[in-house]
Amino acid sequence: MKGLILAGGVGTRLRPFTYSGAKQLVPVANRPVLYYVVDNLVDAQITDLAVVISPETGREVKQSLGDGSAFGARLTYVLQDKPLGIAHAVKVARPFLQEDDFVMFLGDNLIGTRIAPTVQRFARSPELSAFVLLKEVSDPSAFGVVKVDAQGNVMYLQEKPKHPPSNLALVGVYLFRRVIHDAIDELSPSWRGELEITDAITRLMQRGGKVSVETLSSWWLDTGKKDDLLLANDTVLDDWLKAGQEGQVDEDSKITGRVRVEKGAKVIRSTIRGPAIIGRDAELIDARIGPFTSIGDRVKVHRSTVDHSVLMEECLVQDIPRLEDSLIGRRVIVRPGASRHGALSLMVGDDCLVELSRERGG
User: Fold this and answer.
1) Assigned superfamily of 245-334
2) Mean pLDDT of the chain
3) What is the DSSP annotation of 69-122?
4) Which of 157, 196, 255, 278 lies 20 to 30 angstroms, CA to CA, from 316?
5) Which whole-number Å values give the CA distances from 182 to 82, 173, 190, 332, in the listed order?
């Protein structure tokens, strides 16, 4: 069985971070989201993987993942010139997939369970043409939605419906036999101009294929927006973080809860409350780091309090009384300005979000 990871797209919902990088490489607990996807597939003994990339961010994805040997995998890269849908991504990957069964995993999704049992179940069920993972959600209108009958059989699927027929959303993990290619070959673009995977599965069923589903009991996180990414960071730190101290922590610092201090990091006169991770060669001086915070590699936090935030590589936070619920990009500097009368001095690029606290005056 082969694996197909979708790591294309332009990530408009995560701008401005995705202007300079792939959305699948935004870190959660100091690891790119895409790494968790590769790990999950390799854990299921699926090591022959193709990664579908886009012209905009493909080079960065290739540089990050390499040949896959660091993960115990062998990677092939497949270019999707335009974002013409998930089924189109399968179509362009056909030379790699050939006639093999495969697992397709969206590269910006995280699930709180291993897929190995599902893969084994699919392998033992030759009568199945496809198998999809679902999750109950409060608002499924932003996702592919599945309607099932009382016996759990798939009745039909819809892509991002205005009026969802159920609360069961596709989580971005699909298992297919080779017959999915025949179904995709018969598709026409949807009203969005894309080849929809939901249409392909529907066509597969119309051709007599049997599709089974599994509803996740664990969490599922789509990391496409800032708040989603912070929630993913919270969840991964809470569920998966292993405490450890490879960096330097001086005697005037205090660490409570599950905290990981990576090699080369320096913690000086600082307080850290876990769960939290401090990246390689980071520097904390007179800092207070609250729970559910990820401090990236070579980040410097001086005389500041940071809580419930993600600070990416090489940024500087200096003399900030409190920074919370924030996603700070690579090489960003956050510090007080020299403006008078309490005025703000900002340099803000396109598609940014600036949220300022309002002090109530008398």
Assistant:
1) Hexapeptide repeat proteins (2.160.10.10)
2) 89
3) GGGT-EEEEEE-SS---HHHHHHHTHHHHTT--EEEEETTEEESS-SHHHHHHH
4) 255
5) 22, 20, 17, 48
Least confident span in 60-69, 218-227, 339-348: 339-348
Question: Could you tell me the residue ranges of all domains in the chain?
Answer: 2-236, 245-334
Higher pLDDT, 225 or 74: 74
Q: What's the rounded Cα separation, in Å, for the pair 191 and 160?
A: 12
* C-alpha span between 222 and 171 (Å, rounded): 8
Kind of pairing between the strands at 300-302 and 27-28: unpaired
Residue 44, SS3? Answer: coil
> How far, in whole angstroms, is CA 122 from its chain's centroid?
25
pTM for this one? 0.89
CA separation for the pair 115, 159 (Å, rounded): 23
Give me the mean pLDDT over the 232-258 stretch. Answer: 95
Check: CB of residue 172 under 8 Å from CB of residue 105. yes
The 10s digit of each residue's pLDDT in 337-349 is: 766 656 555 555 5
| 151 within 8 A of 175, measured Cβ to Cβ | no
Q: Which two tokens mark 187?
A: 């598709």
Cβ contacts of 136 within 8 Å, gap of 6 or more = 167, 168, 169, 215
Write the CATH number of the domain with boundaries 2-236.
Answer: 3.90.550.10
Structure tokens at 348: 């803000």
Residue range 311-324, pLDDT digits in tens: 999 999 999 989 99
Token duo for residue 159: 């892509």
Backbone angles phi, psi at 233, to 5 degrees: -60, -45
Which residue has 């995977």 as its token pair? 197
CA quadruple 74, 8, 202, 45: dihedral, nearest 10: 20
What kind and span of H or E run contains 89? helix 86-92
Residue 299 to residue 106: CA distance in whole angstroms: 29
Q: Which amino acid is at 283?
A: E
- Cis omega (within 30 of 0) for bond into 16: yes
